[in-house]
Design brief:
about 70 residues, mainly alpha, 2 helices
Length: about 70
């Protein structure tokens, strides 16, 4: 298995968890600890940063080429 991208970039270290998102998609009855906030969806701040990044790209939709089949 290939090394995860974050470990390859950051040298094995990873930042601490600050927030869980999309927990609304978890199966019914799933319990999560209360050590960090558990959001059912994405935060407005995340969506704002995502929009600003897309604006910085000129609202382009980059073409992606896949050399292998996708395992979905």
């Amino acid at each position: 298995m290939a090394e995860p991208l974050w470990r390859a970039v950051a040298g094995g270290a990873h930042p601490p968890v600050q927030l869980r998102t999309m927990v609304g998609d978890l199966p019914e009855g799933t319990e999560l600890p209360d050590d960090v906030p558990n959001r059912k969806g994405h935060s407005a701040g995340f969506m704002g940063r995502l929009f600003l990044a897309w604006a910085a790209m000129g609202f382009r939709n980059p073409k992606l080429t896949v050399n292998e089949g996708l395992d979905v």
